[in-house]
Task: structure prediction
Amino acid sequence: MEVIEALERVAYLHDRKLDPSQKSAAFLKAADVVRELPDGELERRHADGKLEELPGIGKSTAGVISQALDGKVPDRIAELEASSVIPLGEGADLRAALKGDCHLHSTWSDGGASIEGMARAAEALGHEYMVLTDHSPRLTVAHGLTAERLRAQLDEIAALNEKLAPFRILTGIEVDILADGALDQQEDLLGELDVVVASVHSKLSMERKEMTERMVVAVASPHVDILGHCTGRKLRFPDGSVVRKQATFDPELVFAACAQFDTAVEINCRPERQDPPDELLDLALEWGCRVSIDTDAHALGQLEWQNYGCDKAAAHGIEAERIVNTMPADDLVAWAASH
Ligand SMILES: [Zn+2]
Ligand SMILES: [Zn+2]
Result:
Protein backbone atom coordinates (compact mmCIF):
# COMPACT_ATOMS: atom_id res chain seq x y z
CA MET A 1 0.00 0.00 0.00
CA GLU A 2 1.36 3.42 -0.97
CA VAL A 3 2.02 5.74 1.96
CA ILE A 4 -0.29 8.52 0.84
CA GLU A 5 -3.01 6.08 -0.02
CA ALA A 6 -2.66 4.55 3.47
CA LEU A 7 -2.86 7.92 5.23
CA GLU A 8 -5.89 8.95 3.18
CA ARG A 9 -7.59 5.64 3.89
CA VAL A 10 -7.13 6.10 7.63
CA ALA A 11 -8.73 9.55 7.38
CA TYR A 12 -11.62 8.13 5.34
CA LEU A 13 -12.27 5.41 7.90
CA HIS A 14 -12.13 7.78 10.89
CA ASP A 15 -14.74 9.93 9.15
CA ARG A 16 -16.86 6.90 8.31
CA LYS A 17 -16.82 6.10 12.03
CA LEU A 18 -17.78 9.67 12.95
CA ASP A 19 -14.66 10.13 15.03
CA PRO A 20 -13.80 13.76 15.86
CA SER A 21 -12.73 15.48 12.65
CA GLN A 22 -9.31 16.33 14.13
CA LYS A 23 -8.39 12.67 13.73
CA SER A 24 -8.90 12.50 9.99
CA ALA A 25 -7.43 16.00 9.66
CA ALA A 26 -4.17 14.82 11.25
CA PHE A 27 -3.79 12.02 8.71
CA LEU A 28 -4.69 14.26 5.76
CA LYS A 29 -2.13 16.80 7.00
CA ALA A 30 0.48 14.06 7.18
CA ALA A 31 -0.36 13.04 3.60
CA ASP A 32 0.26 16.65 2.53
CA VAL A 33 3.61 16.67 4.35
CA VAL A 34 4.68 13.45 2.65
CA ARG A 35 3.64 14.78 -0.76
CA GLU A 36 5.99 17.74 -0.36
CA LEU A 37 9.10 15.72 0.55
CA PRO A 38 11.96 15.30 -1.92
CA ASP A 39 12.41 11.81 -3.39
CA GLY A 40 13.91 9.30 -0.96
CA GLU A 41 13.66 11.44 2.15
CA LEU A 42 10.72 9.55 3.64
CA GLU A 43 12.54 6.22 3.23
CA ARG A 44 15.75 7.65 4.72
CA ARG A 45 13.94 9.05 7.74
CA HIS A 46 12.12 5.77 8.24
CA ALA A 47 15.44 3.87 8.18
CA ASP A 48 16.96 6.33 10.68
CA GLY A 49 13.89 6.41 12.93
CA LYS A 50 13.45 10.13 12.33
CA LEU A 51 9.95 10.36 10.85
CA GLU A 52 8.53 12.11 13.89
CA GLU A 53 10.98 14.98 13.53
CA LEU A 54 8.96 16.13 10.52
CA PRO A 55 6.45 18.86 11.38
CA GLY A 56 2.93 17.44 11.21
CA ILE A 57 4.04 13.84 11.75
CA GLY A 58 3.37 12.33 15.17
CA LYS A 59 3.41 8.87 16.69
CA SER A 60 0.18 7.64 15.06
CA THR A 61 0.87 9.00 11.60
CA ALA A 62 4.50 7.80 11.73
CA GLY A 63 3.24 4.31 12.66
CA VAL A 64 1.03 4.15 9.58
CA ILE A 65 3.80 5.50 7.34
CA SER A 66 6.34 2.98 8.68
CA GLN A 67 4.09 -0.02 8.21
CA ALA A 68 3.12 1.09 4.71
CA LEU A 69 6.79 1.53 3.79
CA ASP A 70 7.49 -1.96 5.15
CA GLY A 71 4.89 -3.29 2.73
CA LYS A 72 2.33 -4.14 5.42
CA VAL A 73 -1.28 -3.15 5.77
CA PRO A 74 -1.04 -0.74 8.71
CA ASP A 75 -2.64 -2.13 11.90
CA ARG A 76 -4.68 1.03 12.24
CA ILE A 77 -6.27 0.44 8.85
CA ALA A 78 -7.03 -3.20 9.60
CA GLU A 79 -8.66 -2.21 12.89
CA LEU A 80 -10.67 0.67 11.41
CA GLU A 81 -11.84 -1.26 8.34
CA ALA A 82 -13.58 -3.65 10.73
CA SER A 83 -14.76 -1.25 13.42
CA SER A 84 -16.15 1.44 11.10
CA VAL A 85 -18.00 -0.74 8.61
CA ILE A 86 -21.56 0.50 7.97
CA PRO A 87 -23.99 -2.39 8.20
CA LEU A 88 -26.55 -2.93 5.45
CA GLY A 89 -29.46 -5.29 6.03
CA GLU A 90 -32.98 -5.25 4.65
CA GLY A 91 -32.28 -1.98 2.83
CA ALA A 92 -29.80 -3.59 0.44
CA ASP A 93 -32.19 -3.51 -2.52
CA LEU A 94 -32.98 0.15 -1.95
CA ARG A 95 -29.31 0.98 -1.62
CA ALA A 96 -28.69 -0.73 -4.94
CA ALA A 97 -31.48 1.36 -6.48
CA LEU A 98 -30.01 4.70 -5.37
CA LYS A 99 -28.27 6.61 -8.14
CA GLY A 100 -26.99 9.56 -6.16
CA ASP A 101 -26.90 11.56 -2.96
CA CYS A 102 -28.78 14.87 -2.71
CA HIS A 103 -27.27 16.43 0.41
CA LEU A 104 -23.54 16.81 1.05
CA HIS A 105 -20.95 19.48 1.79
CA SER A 106 -17.47 20.46 0.67
CA THR A 107 -14.67 22.69 1.97
CA TRP A 108 -16.52 25.60 0.37
CA SER A 109 -18.65 25.62 3.55
CA ASP A 110 -17.94 23.34 6.52
CA GLY A 111 -17.02 20.08 4.80
CA GLY A 112 -13.62 18.43 5.11
CA ALA A 113 -13.03 17.50 1.46
CA SER A 114 -12.92 19.26 -1.89
CA ILE A 115 -15.77 19.04 -4.37
CA GLU A 116 -13.66 16.81 -6.60
CA GLY A 117 -12.78 14.56 -3.66
CA MET A 118 -16.43 14.16 -2.73
CA ALA A 119 -17.33 13.43 -6.36
CA ARG A 120 -14.68 10.75 -6.74
CA ALA A 121 -15.72 9.13 -3.46
CA ALA A 122 -19.38 9.19 -4.49
CA GLU A 123 -18.50 7.64 -7.84
CA ALA A 124 -16.48 4.94 -6.08
CA LEU A 125 -19.64 4.03 -4.16
CA GLY A 126 -21.46 3.46 -7.42
CA HIS A 127 -23.28 6.78 -7.72
CA GLU A 128 -24.01 8.41 -11.07
CA TYR A 129 -24.34 11.86 -9.53
CA MET A 130 -24.25 13.90 -6.37
CA VAL A 131 -25.93 17.18 -5.52
CA LEU A 132 -23.52 19.59 -3.88
CA THR A 133 -25.43 21.41 -1.14
CA ASP A 134 -23.15 23.74 0.75
CA HIS A 135 -24.60 26.05 3.39
CA SER A 136 -26.18 29.46 2.81
CA PRO A 137 -24.82 32.89 3.96
CA ARG A 138 -26.49 33.30 7.36
CA LEU A 139 -24.93 30.10 8.64
CA THR A 140 -21.68 31.91 9.27
CA VAL A 141 -20.31 29.24 11.64
CA ALA A 142 -20.35 26.90 8.64
CA HIS A 143 -18.90 29.46 6.21
CA GLY A 144 -22.15 29.67 4.31
CA LEU A 145 -21.76 30.83 0.71
CA THR A 146 -22.71 34.34 -0.33
CA ALA A 147 -24.40 34.69 -3.71
CA GLU A 148 -21.06 35.69 -5.16
CA ARG A 149 -19.26 32.62 -3.82
CA LEU A 150 -22.08 30.35 -4.91
CA ARG A 151 -21.76 31.74 -8.45
CA ALA A 152 -18.04 31.02 -8.32
CA GLN A 153 -18.82 27.50 -7.14
CA LEU A 154 -21.13 26.98 -10.14
CA ASP A 155 -18.18 27.77 -12.44
CA GLU A 156 -16.00 25.25 -10.63
CA ILE A 157 -18.71 22.60 -10.88
CA ALA A 158 -19.06 23.21 -14.62
CA ALA A 159 -15.31 22.68 -15.06
CA LEU A 160 -15.30 19.57 -12.87
CA ASN A 161 -18.21 18.09 -14.80
CA GLU A 162 -16.17 18.19 -17.99
CA LYS A 163 -13.34 16.45 -16.21
CA LEU A 164 -15.37 13.81 -14.35
CA ALA A 165 -17.95 12.86 -16.98
CA PRO A 166 -19.97 10.67 -17.13
CA PHE A 167 -20.24 11.26 -13.36
CA ARG A 168 -22.29 14.40 -12.72
CA ILE A 169 -22.17 16.99 -10.00
CA LEU A 170 -25.57 18.63 -9.83
CA THR A 171 -25.75 22.15 -8.47
CA GLY A 172 -27.55 22.78 -5.22
CA ILE A 173 -27.63 24.34 -1.80
CA GLU A 174 -28.72 23.56 1.72
CA VAL A 175 -30.52 26.82 2.20
CA ASP A 176 -31.43 28.02 5.67
CA ILE A 177 -35.09 28.47 6.41
CA LEU A 178 -35.17 31.87 8.12
CA ALA A 179 -37.46 32.63 11.06
CA ASP A 180 -40.29 33.82 8.82
CA GLY A 181 -39.98 30.94 6.38
CA ALA A 182 -38.04 32.95 3.79
CA LEU A 183 -35.00 31.33 2.20
CA ASP A 184 -31.47 32.52 2.82
CA GLN A 185 -30.36 33.06 -0.79
CA GLN A 186 -31.32 35.19 -3.79
CA GLU A 187 -34.41 33.98 -5.60
CA ASP A 188 -32.92 34.04 -9.09
CA LEU A 189 -29.93 32.05 -7.93
CA LEU A 190 -32.13 29.45 -6.22
CA GLY A 191 -34.00 29.18 -9.50
CA GLU A 192 -30.80 28.35 -11.35
CA LEU A 193 -29.81 25.46 -9.10
CA ASP A 194 -30.65 21.87 -9.99
CA VAL A 195 -31.81 20.81 -6.51
CA VAL A 196 -32.55 22.83 -3.37
CA VAL A 197 -32.56 21.34 0.12
CA ALA A 198 -34.07 23.64 2.75
CA SER A 199 -33.37 23.19 6.45
CA VAL A 200 -33.91 24.88 9.79
CA HIS A 201 -30.65 25.51 11.65
CA SER A 202 -31.45 28.44 13.92
CA LYS A 203 -34.15 29.23 16.50
CA LEU A 204 -35.09 25.57 16.82
CA SER A 205 -36.88 26.24 20.09
CA MET A 206 -39.45 28.47 18.41
CA GLU A 207 -43.03 28.16 19.54
CA ARG A 208 -44.97 25.38 17.78
CA LYS A 209 -47.37 27.55 15.80
CA GLU A 210 -44.62 29.83 14.47
CA MET A 211 -42.34 26.92 13.63
CA THR A 212 -45.16 25.22 11.72
CA GLU A 213 -45.81 28.37 9.68
CA ARG A 214 -42.11 28.85 9.10
CA MET A 215 -41.71 25.33 7.70
CA VAL A 216 -44.91 25.38 5.64
CA VAL A 217 -43.93 28.66 3.99
CA ALA A 218 -40.54 27.19 3.04
CA VAL A 219 -41.95 23.88 1.84
CA ALA A 220 -44.42 25.77 -0.37
CA SER A 221 -41.64 27.66 -2.14
CA PRO A 222 -41.34 26.57 -5.77
CA HIS A 223 -37.56 26.54 -5.28
CA VAL A 224 -37.55 23.98 -2.47
CA ASP A 225 -37.27 20.34 -3.50
CA ILE A 226 -36.28 18.58 -0.29
CA LEU A 227 -36.98 19.37 3.36
CA GLY A 228 -33.70 18.61 5.18
CA HIS A 229 -33.49 16.97 8.65
CA CYS A 230 -36.96 18.18 9.58
CA THR A 231 -36.80 18.07 13.38
CA GLY A 232 -33.22 19.27 13.80
CA ARG A 233 -32.69 16.84 16.68
CA LYS A 234 -29.27 15.54 17.60
CA LEU A 235 -28.55 12.33 19.44
CA ARG A 236 -25.44 11.23 21.19
CA PHE A 237 -24.02 8.54 18.95
CA PRO A 238 -24.14 5.62 19.54
CA ASP A 239 -26.12 5.48 22.81
CA GLY A 240 -29.08 7.39 21.38
CA SER A 241 -29.53 9.86 24.24
CA VAL A 242 -30.84 13.23 23.11
CA VAL A 243 -28.39 16.11 22.91
CA ARG A 244 -30.59 18.61 21.12
CA LYS A 245 -34.33 18.29 21.37
CA GLN A 246 -36.35 18.21 18.20
CA ALA A 247 -38.16 21.31 17.06
CA THR A 248 -41.87 21.34 17.81
CA PHE A 249 -44.20 21.82 14.88
CA ASP A 250 -47.47 20.38 13.66
CA PRO A 251 -46.25 17.48 11.53
CA GLU A 252 -49.68 16.95 9.97
CA LEU A 253 -49.60 20.43 8.49
CA VAL A 254 -45.96 20.30 7.46
CA PHE A 255 -46.22 16.92 5.75
CA ALA A 256 -49.54 17.86 4.17
CA ALA A 257 -47.71 20.82 2.67
CA CYS A 258 -44.84 18.59 1.51
CA ALA A 259 -47.35 16.33 -0.22
CA GLN A 260 -49.28 19.26 -1.68
CA PHE A 261 -46.20 21.03 -3.06
CA ASP A 262 -44.35 17.82 -3.93
CA THR A 263 -41.41 18.57 -1.64
CA ALA A 264 -39.57 15.42 -0.61
CA VAL A 265 -38.95 14.69 3.08
CA GLU A 266 -35.33 13.85 3.70
CA ILE A 267 -34.30 10.72 5.53
CA ASN A 268 -31.11 12.17 6.99
CA CYS A 269 -28.60 9.35 7.42
CA ARG A 270 -26.25 11.04 9.88
CA PRO A 271 -26.00 8.70 12.85
CA GLU A 272 -26.33 11.55 15.32
CA ARG A 273 -29.44 12.85 13.56
CA GLN A 274 -31.54 9.87 12.39
CA ASP A 275 -34.11 12.37 11.28
CA PRO A 276 -37.08 12.13 10.99
CA PRO A 277 -37.82 9.93 13.98
CA ASP A 278 -39.82 6.77 13.15
CA GLU A 279 -43.26 8.05 14.06
CA LEU A 280 -42.81 11.19 11.98
CA LEU A 281 -41.55 9.23 9.01
CA ASP A 282 -44.68 7.08 9.15
CA LEU A 283 -46.80 10.20 9.17
CA ALA A 284 -44.98 11.63 6.15
CA LEU A 285 -45.60 8.36 4.33
CA GLU A 286 -49.29 8.41 5.24
CA TRP A 287 -49.51 11.84 3.64
CA GLY A 288 -47.96 10.39 0.52
CA CYS A 289 -44.76 12.41 0.63
CA ARG A 290 -41.77 11.49 -1.47
CA VAL A 291 -38.53 10.91 0.39
CA SER A 292 -34.86 11.45 -0.35
CA ILE A 293 -32.21 9.29 1.35
CA ASP A 294 -29.25 11.57 1.93
CA THR A 295 -26.05 11.41 3.92
CA ASP A 296 -25.51 15.10 4.75
CA ALA A 297 -21.86 14.04 4.46
CA HIS A 298 -19.22 16.54 5.57
CA ALA A 299 -16.35 14.14 4.74
CA LEU A 300 -15.58 11.40 2.24
CA GLY A 301 -16.17 8.36 4.45
CA GLN A 302 -19.55 9.71 5.52
CA LEU A 303 -20.91 9.16 2.01
CA GLU A 304 -21.31 5.50 3.01
CA TRP A 305 -23.97 6.37 5.57
CA GLN A 306 -26.76 5.90 3.05
CA ASN A 307 -26.86 2.31 4.28
CA TYR A 308 -28.46 3.53 7.51
CA GLY A 309 -31.18 5.40 5.66
CA CYS A 310 -31.86 2.50 3.31
CA ASP A 311 -32.36 0.09 6.21
CA LYS A 312 -34.66 2.61 7.85
CA ALA A 313 -36.65 3.12 4.65
CA ALA A 314 -37.01 -0.63 4.16
CA ALA A 315 -38.16 -1.05 7.76
CA HIS A 316 -40.91 1.48 6.99
CA GLY A 317 -41.91 -0.30 3.81
CA ILE A 318 -40.82 2.50 1.50
CA GLU A 319 -40.57 1.51 -2.15
CA ALA A 320 -37.92 2.69 -4.57
CA GLU A 321 -40.43 4.70 -6.68
CA ARG A 322 -41.07 7.00 -3.75
CA ILE A 323 -37.39 7.84 -3.27
CA VAL A 324 -36.30 10.77 -5.43
CA ASN A 325 -32.66 9.76 -5.62
CA THR A 326 -33.48 6.50 -7.31
CA MET A 327 -34.17 8.69 -10.34
CA PRO A 328 -31.47 9.17 -12.97
CA ALA A 329 -29.95 12.66 -12.91
CA ASP A 330 -32.02 14.07 -15.78
CA ASP A 331 -35.27 12.89 -14.24
CA LEU A 332 -34.29 14.26 -10.85
CA VAL A 333 -33.48 17.66 -12.31
CA ALA A 334 -36.71 17.64 -14.33
CA TRP A 335 -38.72 16.77 -11.23
CA ALA A 336 -37.01 19.50 -9.22
CA ALA A 337 -37.84 22.03 -11.95
CA SER A 338 -41.44 20.89 -12.26
CA HIS A 339 -42.93 21.92 -8.96
ZN1 LIG B 1 -22.64 21.65 7.80
ZN1 LIG C 1 -28.26 20.93 7.86
User: Anything to note?
Assistant: The chain has a mean pLDDT of 97. The radius of gyration is 21 Å. The first strand starts at residue 100 and ends at 101.
